[in-house]
Amino acid sequence: MSEFWLISAPGDKANLLAWDRMNTVTSKANLSSNSKFAIPDLKVGTLDTLVGLSDELGKVDSFAESVIKKIAQYIGEVLEDSKDKVQENLLANGVDLISYLTKFEWDMAKYPIKQPLKNISEGLAKQITQIEADMKSRAAVYNNIKGNLQNLERKTAGNLLTRTLTDIVNKDDFVLNSEYLITLLVVVPKTSYVQWQKNYESLSDMVVPRSTKMIAEDSEGGLFTVTLFRKVIDDFKTKARENKFMVREFYFDEKELKCEKDEMRKLASDKKQQYGPLLRWLKVNFSEAFVAWIHIKALRVFSESVLRYGLPVNFQAMLLQPNKKSMKRLREVLNAVFKHLDEVAAASLMDTSVDIPGLQLSNQDYYPYVYFKIDLSLLDSS
Fold first, then answer.
1. What fold is seen in the domain 171-251?
2. What is the DSSP letter of 38?
3. What does the angle CA 283 – CA 287 – CA 291 come to, to the nearest 5 degrees?
4. I need a labelling partner for 276 at 20 to 30 A (CA). Which of 8, 12, 306, 375 fits?
5. Sheet holding 32-36, edge to edge
6. Distance between CA 95 and CA 108 in Å, rounded?
């Protein structure tokens, strides 16, 4: 189960009561796996500042989650691999995401707690914005190379009527630099090989005898050369078409073929050179963004808990990993344990048909306790 619930409730002096009550009832019934979520002594500031910050943090939270999902999904695109393989690369500070989350420790060096909450929030938002901008520019370069390479590779995947012939034809297959003669390429269906061999010399005048040979074959047919005089090209094409032999519009140009081969080699080389550094950057910055996101969640729990439960700051933040089959029951148990914190919210949860005046928040978002969801299924569509 990749969904976690980050909640908080007022504590006693040692912050034990809220934790013990909640942990006892949910663990016994196997409703969730629980751990304490440590939040340091942050600077509260004024209540007015906290109210404004609460709204701002909600936006930063959503933005950070969307950037993390983009990075996770782009790692999948770059790896061109299975979801399991991608998951192995999604780490935070070198550990898997669940381990990081359940053993969360505030990073004092990155986000000093002596500064105002607003400064921490703005710093986190700036960090995420920079990561997103960098990813866009790096992805644009890589996607351009990859797209151009795929376009060239796609040309080698069609049938003999449409695919590029760069890797098929050779100089020796053609009569070149002749004023009078030209070599054409003709696609012949497999069922018509005998008919082609029997009739190609008589499809028009001035076809060079015994000038045909098959130089490539796929599941549908073969690619044959035939040499004839230039002045009968149109007549030969018409007669060939009538017999279901398709002449390819292709004239051998060594320079052009070399350019195409060189371009493909260069793009493949460029893609390979970009791949390693890009993947490393994505992994490092996924970790950075994820760590920032969980710090944003911690800020939200802190500010919301102070607004709900008042001063002095005394609450216990808790992280629950619900058992998927027991989510509804877990919600009911939490409501029972914490209903004394907000009787209005508790009553509205008991009866969703009751319209409680003054309760503006949707029932899905508001509970008697502070609640935020953390969804780690980052590879699903956002």
1. Alpha-Beta Plaits (3.30.70)
2. -
3. 170
4. 375
5. 32-36, 315-322, 3-10, 370-375
6. 19
Euclidean distance between CA atoms 321 and 353, whole angstroms:
29
Asked if CATH classification 1.20.1460.10 holds for the domain at 3-150+268-375, the reply, yes or no, is yes
| pLDDT tens for the 382 residues of the chain, in order | 689 999 999 876 544 677 888 889 898 889 999 999 999 999 998 888 899 999 999 999 999 999 999 999 999 999 987 677 888 999 999 999 999 999 999 999 999 999 999 999 999 999 999 999 999 999 999 999 999 999 888 888 888 988 888 888 999 999 999 999 999 999 999 999 999 999 999 999 999 999 999 999 999 999 999 999 999 999 999 999 999 999 998 888 888 888 988 998 999 999 999 999 999 999 999 999 999 999 999 999 999 999 999 888 889 999 999 998 999 999 999 998 888 888 777 677 665 444 444 444 444 568 999 999 999 988 754 3
Rg, Å, the chain Cα set: 34
User: Where in the chain is CATH 1.20.1460.10?
Assistant: 3-150+268-375
Euclidean distance between CA atoms 254 and 260, whole angstroms: 10
Give whole-number Cα distances, 214 to 21, 161, 207, 242, 289, in Å: 82, 14, 17, 20, 58
CATH 3.30.70.100 positions along the chain are 171-251
The residue among 331, 335, 315 whose CA lies nearest residue 323 is 331
SS3 243: coil
Instruction: Kindly give, in sequence order, each residue whose CB lies less than 8 Å from that of residue 322, ignoring residues fewer than 6 positions away.
Output: 1, 3, 4, 5, 31, 32, 330
Please work out, in degrees rounded to the nearest 5, the angle formed at the alpha carbon of residue 197 by the alpha carbons of 195 and 203: 80
Distance separating alpha carbons of residues 83 and 352, to the nearest angstrom: 39
